From TrEMBL:
Source organism: Kyrpidia spormannii
Enzyme Commission number, as recorded: 5.4.99.-
A Gene Ontology cellular-component term: cytosol
Record-given protein name: Pseudouridine synthase
GO biological process, one term: enzyme-directed rRNA pseudouridine synthesis
Cross-referenced NCBIfam families: pseudouridine synthase
Cross-referenced InterPro entries: PsdUridine_s_RsuA/RluB/E/F_cat, PsdUridine_synth_cat_dom_sf, PsdUridine_synth_RsuA/RluA, PsdUridine_synth_RsuA/RluB/E/F, PsdUridine_synth_RsuA/RluB_CS, RsuA_PseudoU_synthase, S4_RNA-bd, S4_RNA-bd_sf
Source superkingdom: Bacteria
Family as reported in the entry's similarity comment: Belongs to the pseudouridine synthase RsuA family.
């Protein structure tokens, strides 16, 4: 495994922010192979060297980030008694412990699902305080109009009385069946379906094409997946300034 900065390793493992780790190092609380390390920029091999913080061993866990193009009929869950899950679609060699889908898509919705074992990142991108953007393509029954665009921008009031946050709606093709793109900054249950239901225009097809500024790879077939590139991980981690960019791995 390639050597990485000590502060990045410990921050990625949830020991603290890089500022916290710098203070710990200055206080002599961090050891590598039994020696006190006061320089948090030191490059070490976490797979070979022994780390201790405040006298407690810290075991390095390599984190995984998979972009999947979820097909319809598959549920965004780890285990389900009736349906195949996104975890079931992973090759056995990639099905490492503690993986989970960060967020959910309805069983009939397609598109970008992030599968990871990075709980910190998942919490950051799913937190309602962060308003991380999610982009969808949809086909709806009925002609979508400029008035609908304005209603989305103002914040639609749904049938249950909830006022959705302002959202971006773009018309790609208007007709008896309209094709649209939607950008949301929240993720309520069945939200897009409920928003168009409030306009009397049922959703016929829905696909998530971007999450947090990361685009779904158009080369992925339904059920296909690939590892996120380092720059894509960094983009997701930028949603929370407390998260460091992921260091490069061998």
């Amino acid at each position: 495994m390639a050597k990485q900065r000590l502060d990045r390793i410990l921050a990625e493992m949830g020991v603290g922010s890089r500022r916290d780790i710098k203070k710990m190092a200055r206080s002599g609380l961090i050891e590598v192979d039994g020696r006190v390390v006061r320089d948090p920029s030191l490059h070490i091999d976490p797979g070979e060297q022994v780390l201790c913080v405040a006298g407690q061993p810290v075991h390095y866990q390599r984190l995984h980030y998979w972009m999947m193009n979820k097909p319809p009929g598959v549920v965004s869950a780890v285990i389900d008694p009736r349906h195949r899950t996104v975890i079931d679609l992973l090759d056995e060699s990639d099905r490492t412990p503690h993986l989970f889908p960060a967020g959910r898509l309805d069983i009939d919705t397609e598109g970008f699902v992030l599968i990871t074992d990075d709980g910190q990142l998942a919490h950051a991108i799913l937190s309602p305080k962060r308003h991380v953007s999610k982009t969808y393509r949809a086909t709806v029954q009925g002609r979508v109009s400029d008035a609908d665009i304005a209603a989305f921008a103002q914040g639609l009031i749904l049938r249950d009385g909830y006022r959705a946050l302002p959202a971006h709606l773009q018309i790609l093709n208007a007709g008896e069946r309209s094709e649209v793109e939607i950008v949301l900054r929240e993720g309520k249950f069945h939200q897009i379906k409920r928003m168009f239901a409030a306009l009397g225009k049922p959703v016929l097809y829905l696909k998530r094409v971007a999450f947090g500024g990361v685009q779904l790879d158009p080369s992925l077939p339904p059920g296909g997946y690939r590892a996120l590139a380092d720059d894509e991980i960094a983009r997701l981690r930028e949603t929370d300034p407390r998260l460091p960019p992921r260091p490069a791995e061998s």
